[in-house]
Write a structure and sequence with these properties.
heterodimer, A: 657 residues, mainly beta, Maltoporin, Chain A, 7% helix, B: 305 residues, alpha/beta, 2 domains, 44% helix, elongated
Amino acid sequence: MVIRSIAACLSCCFLVVLACVPPAYAASDLSEADFLVELPTVLTASRLSQPLMDAPNSTNVIDRKQIEASGYHNISDLFRLVPGFYVGQKRGWSHNVSHTFADEFARHIQVMVDGRTIYLATIGGVRWDTLPLSIDDIERIEVVRGPNAASFGANAFTGIINIITRHPDDVAGRMLHLAAGDHDHREAWFRWAGRSQNGSHRITLGDRRDGGFTYQDDDETSQIFNYRGDFDLAAGKTLSVQLGGLAGERGEGADDDPANLPHPQDVSSRHLQLDYQHDLSPENSLHLKFYFNHLLTEEIVPTALSPGFYYLADLLGQRLHLEGQYTQAVGENARTVVGAYLRRDTVRSYLYWNTNEKLNADSWGMFGHIEWRPLAPWLVNLGAFWEDHELVGQFVSPRATLHWQPSLNHSFRIGISKAYRNPVMFEALANANITVLKPDGSVLAQLPYIISSSVIKPESMLSRDIGYLGVWPEAGLTVDLRLFREQFDNFILLDTPGGGPHECPVSTTTPTGARDWCNNGGSLQQGYEFQLKWNPNANNTVMLNHADLRIDANMSETRYSPPQISGLHLMHDFSKGLDLSLSQYWVSGFEAIGQKLIPSYKRLDARLAKRFKVAGLNGQIALVWQNLGDSYTEFNSRYPPQNVFDRRAYVHFQLDF
Amino acid sequence: MPRWIFLCCLFWSLASPASAENVVHLILSEDAAAYQEVANSFRAGIGPRLNVKVWTLADIDVAQVRNLTGGSDLVVPVGVKATRFVAAQHAGQAPVLALMIPRATSEKLKWPAGMSRKKISAVFIDQPPERSLTLVEAAFPAARNVGLVISSENEAVAKALAREAARRNLRLTVETITGPEALPSALRRVLAESDVLLLVPDAVAINASNAQNVLLTTYRFRIPVVGFSQGLTKAGAVVSVYSSPAQIGLQGAQFAARLVEMGELPVPRHARESSFAFNSYVARSLGVVLPSEAEIRRKLESKND
């Protein structure tokens, strides 16, 4: 009995021990199958972006390294790193990014986030301050200098900006980013990213405050939420979902502006975006995109007519967009993309359109382009964009480019393109009246402000350019040069009271005191843009940008963009996680559209950062200085200017945990 | 002895395999094309010196293997399954030359205690670290930082690569992972510091199920990948160096010839011959200018691999 139970016990133990001993083959599961296995093509023709050497326009990429080295907390400041771009600030929160056409509303560039346009259908331009996106969530920014409607749609006029956000897998974990600095600047960001069973997710929450310029009522507060989820539905099918929202307040008005005394503007923006990609084969794929944008600003504007007299300046803009795109690679030498879209823009503002009803403008269009290598060193890019827009009718934007690539490191390009900028709803259908209300809400008076008495045509441009991109990999050197000649016609302008022959003809139906939109005037722009990037070794980067612009305009504003803009950037990596970057800018004086003279200025920015590890967590602390030199002014429409940019310093603390 | 018995014995001895050097038994893990290619190339390489018999693992049983390994004929298992089977059932006598198996797996095999090291050898399917790094230098002359993600089992490979990298003035950034869940963050950390990502055979770090995620991540970071197989290059690695089944078979034949001449097998090693696979689409998209195959070979030869 005892012996039997001991035997049983021993055999039990033996079995347990056997179970615990790992099978002899578990040590390495590697076999020849891992070498011989057939893998599906992951980097298919449609996932591969066109190399810069082959691009039909001069294109710059602002990558993660440059974004961090810049130390900028405003996304708009990043465009100082691109040749020929002008970045200005009219109010603390009102940022302006333009290329060869500096105007307060910056209506001439198409701006997108992951292919979703954020250009305002209401009044044009971009409200950078209402973008619910953290700079830490930007992977890279592709900036195109010149027009390209065939690839980027309507209003890709003097340039295109496409901000590409970071994939949740690339920022997995939690991150905290705190910043504080001059002019009561405070920022707190928290991000979480991780995988669930069916996808990867990234959630970012932010709170920003800034006091704006010293002598202006232009402070801002914002609360931000941003979500991105990427899902692998099946082999070759992915879905990306983006959701974002921002709510906050902006300081508006000025003490010495009787029609616009200081007051807060409430802002609320949100968006939803869905991107579905289906790789049908390594050679072709289908991409469907849908997005919805919403931006509402509300203001009760006090006037100096009498205490308590005010008017409402609410503005709502929405966009619904649905698009399909099909990419096909034909052998090794050609790739074509074709697509179509539907869009509805909706606006509402009693101030701008004199009605409480929503107004819609629908459009639809088709686009296509082909990259084709007919014969060894030659590459042809042909594209066209056709749109039917309710406000302006139909038009076609064609583009043709020819590259000569004597080697894989050097590419010469010549191109011609016709592009249009549609009038925005405010330009096409304006019926703006300032309806002054008494304290009890009844109407005191209606003052005509801006109208559109004639049919507004789109602005048009014929662009011709010659480009060169050269790389010397062993020397770590890249040179990018663009020479251009652009003819603009049918500028959309507001007439100037008492204006000259090139202004809008004063219509007899225009109510007295109101300004009228019209198409009038044009200009010839010629110049060159240049960028040199040099990596002498792994620790150093030098970048030099220069742009020269000559404007020959037959309208009153003849110097509407700086004739010269230059930038010199140095990045140095000390060892032990310490790095320094310096940026020196030189911008010459000019007269922006509808502005007074803006004098030339110089500006030096710097950033010193140190990476560290604490309790096994990665962190970084950075000191950022903006404008180490004398104060200067950017956009202004008042004299003396109130938006004086002085020396600023900020501290940033970031922790991954 | 009656003369006819003597003649019969003579005929019998002439007709039957007289010694270990005359017959080779190839045992293929599978009946697939790659294994057949090894067999054909081995046969062509060995010529009339040896009589080659080809078996598939499915057709052979324990008794037959014990019988073969109990004799003196060379046994050549092709692939890991066949090699493991032979190792487990080895009767202790026959020399074994394993073909087309990874080095890491080969080194973990257990052979009968009494067998001489000179009777066991292998031709690996993977590449020596020197060859991988020479490829990195040749294809990416401007690169200074090479990234590597490896599981803890492959520490020896990482050490060998680190030694080689130091000799060539390249900085190797290595992340060691213990399991697949650690891969995404390790990969991101490595990519942030690298000009090029080197993939080495490692069941945890890179396999058929995670290859898509790895390659998409490297593309998002715009970092080119150097792979170790044709499959990886087709999937998206910019360039790979690998030894084809035919090249491995040929190397195996040379080893077998050595056994015939010297009575012992050479030390296990990789195949001397190698091939390259290029992905010109991905190279172009990343702005990588690949040198010609001839130029890469020249560099490989000059490093006296």
